[in-house]
Every structure is written in structure tokens, then in C-alpha cells.
Design a protein that fits this description.
The protein is of the alpha/beta class. The protein has one domain: Rossmann fold (3-Layer(aba) Sandwich), CATH 3.40.50.300. The chain has 8 helices and 5 strands; from the N terminus they run E-H-E-H-H-E-H-H-E-H-H-E-H. It has a 5-stranded parallel beta sheet with strand order 2-3-1-4-5, with helices on both faces.
């Protein structure tokens, strides 16, 4: 289709990203979206952050043993992404699938820059990444995010920024780290035209908004 603003990555499928910090409900939304897309008779594949068969266990072990400095943190996650891109994401896009990603390179931009890396260094690290067709950003204020994390999974060492020494108080460290991440998300949301959604809404309200936007693209008939 001429003048198609989608599929700039050059493949016949669609690349849809759902971004946001831990605890905003991304995993719930990607699973609901996959079910909706498959119900419309499209092939659909999910890919989550840190799920490479080659690298994910290495990252987990390094985290558990506290072996990651800011550079190895960046490089290992980039390797995880590169493996998933080559072996799952691009093959699915070539086959005309709708690929849904739970987090994308923007997560790396934010985490790595908050940890002290120059943002341009991080962007160069991921300069091979295809441009997504749609990016949904689930936005939630830190106070509500903190309550949700405490009530569910608890506070993660790295998601609380403890590895970069923000505070000896884990709750204070979490607030400081997440506020820095939210500031970076605001910058990226403007630059890359994220579709910002209020993460405090109900699961179904958020899903319906995402579904409505995705349906508009599917109705264009560019995915066969």
C-alpha cells in the first residue's frame, strides 16, 4: 500500500510494543491482545524482555550473584534482544505475523541511561532494531506503582535501583529510581509518539483502548 505509515521495518507483519515499568500490567495486556488478534484470524506471536534461550539464564544468574555492573547489564540485555530478534521476531514478521513485544529497546534506553550510560551510546547499541508500528505506554504514578508492587511481587533489587546506590532504604530507592525512569519515559513518549494510556484504569478499559487502536490498523488490510 502506497504511503503506508506502518511496516517501516520492511516486513509484512506488524510490530506492536507495550511499554511501561514493572507492575503496570503489561503482561496482562499483551496476553489479552494476543487472544484478540488471534480471534480475528491473524497469526500472532509474543516476545518478552529477557527470554532468549541463550542469554536469559546468564542474566538471571548474574543478577542473583550481583555480578552486573552498568556496562555488563547493558550488553547482556542487548545480546538477549539480538538473539530474540534474529531467531523469533524477524522470522515472525517475515511470515506476516503480528508480533507483540512486552517491552522493547525503549526499556534499555531508560534503564541504561538512568544507570549512567550516555543515551547515544545505548541507542548505537540497538541501532539494528526495527522500528515498531505502534507503541503503547502504560503510565502509572510511583505512589500507586509502589503499593501495587508491595501487594503482589514485592520490590525487586534492580527495579528499585539498589544496584546503583540511590538509597539504603529500599522504598526510597524504589521511588527515586522509578521517578527517574518516568522522567525518561516522558521524553521518549514525545520523541517516538507513544500512545500513552493511564495504567490506573481497569484492565478491561486499557485493553479496549489498545484493541480499538490495533483494530484500526488491521482494518487497513496491510497484514494478510
Amino acid at each position: 500500500m502506497e504511503n503506508n505509515k506502518y511496516q517501516k521495518h520492511g516486513y509484512s507483519g506488524l510490530l506492536i510494543v507495550i511499554e511501561g515499568t514493572d507492575g503496570t500490567g503489561k503482561s496482562t495486556q499483551v496476553n489479552m491482545l494476543q487472544k484478540y488478534i488471534e480471534a480475528q484470524s491473524y497469526g500472532c506471536m509474543l516476545s518478552e524482555w529477557k527470554t532468549s534461550r541463550l542469554i536469559s539464564d546468564v542474566i538471571t544468574e548474574a543478577k542473583e550473584r550481583n555480578l552486573l555492573n552498568t556496562t555488563t547489564f547493558s550488553l547482556l540485555y542487548a545480546a538477549d534482544y539480538a538473539d530474540r530478534l534474529e531467531n523469533t521476531i524477524i522470522p515472525a514478521l517475515k511470515a506476516g505475523f503480528v508480533v507483540i513485544l512486552d517491552r522493547y529497546i525503549y526499556t534499555a534506553y531508560i534503564r541504561d541511561s538512568v544507570r549512567g550510560h550516555d543515551i547515544n551510546w545505548v541507542k548505537n547499541l540497538y541501532d539494528f532494531a526495527p522500528e515498531p508500528d505502534m507503541v503503547f505506554y502504560l503510565k502509572m504514578p510511583v505512589d500507586k506503582l509502589l503499593k501495587r508492587m508491595i501487594a503482589t511481587t514485592g520490590l525487586d533489587y534492580f527495579e528499585s535501583g539498589r544496584d546503583i546506590g540511590l538509597s539504603t532504604d529500599i522504598y526510597k530507592s524504589f521511588e527515586m529510581y522509578q521517578n527517574r525512569c518516568l522522567d525518561e519515559y516522558e521524553k521518549l513518549a514525545q520523541k517516538y509518539n507513544f500512545k500513552i494510556l493511564d495504567g490506573c484504569q481497569t484492565v478491561f478499559d486499557i485493553h479496549n483502548q489498545i484493541k480499538t487502536e490495533v483494530k484500526k490498523v488491521l482494518d487497513l488490510g496491510i497484514v494478510k
